[in-house]
Design brief:
mainly beta; globular; disordered N terminus
Length: 300
Amino acid sequence: MSIKFLSRSMVYGSSWLLVGAELTFVNLGHAEQSARLDDPSQPTAGSDAPLAPRRALPPPSDRPPASVSETEARGRNLPEDVPLVAYATNAFGADPSSLGVSGFAETRGSQQSTKALANGGLRVWGAPIDRLVLVLDAQRREENNAFAPSVTAQVRLLGSTRDGWALGVLSRYKTEGFAELGGEVEGGVLLSVKSLGFHLDSNLIGGGDFDGGESDGEALARAGYDVTSFLRLGGEARGRYRLSGSKPLPGNRSADVFGGAQALAYADHYFAAVTGGPSTVGISDRIGWSIIVNAGGVAF
């Protein structure tokens, strides 16, 4: 009798031990699953992905929040990837491997003339490598009503958008820089500065024809302030002076100027700008006006 009682006790005790071990295993499994759910670096149940250590992911401070736009995550906004919207050139260049295209139109006239002159064209630019921007323009000229392409190579020498300033140079070939001449070559120095929402681009450009008989120099500047995350307001100015040659500028002048207000709107990959003000560029009368519209987009 004692042997039977002892056997039954051992059987019952073993059963309780098995039940306790099973409950402990289940509890451990639940704890492990909860730890994986709390840790985004660990895969959930049923996942084939290998376990990743916690330090495989960068700290949250190094990852941009979901609300940060693509251009903000790159440390620059869209206008810094657009070389120019009117006359002045941006020295920051463009983001490496980016590609942009825009269409632009200009109309100008004067109070003395009832007929306004208009021209326009297409601009394509890209940055095959860092610091280098290539620009191709095809613009219709009112002198001969034909498209006259030009090619520009722009190089950033110093600075960057993160530094808040940049110094660069450019070289440009225009197939018809002066209406009757076969071509013109230009070169210049570019400087851009940005700080606390303010932006300034300034250029000094000089050029002449291949024969060396006609040459001129230009000073250009553009200033603006980001009033919102998608709108920049400011102005742009240009002054040109004939350095050599017998052919005067329109209006029998040796110099012409332009200055006006500018509004630049941008969102995501797209932008549009309107620049307008008093001008003597291409105006035969004493003083006139000019309006430039530019719109396009950038892929990066």
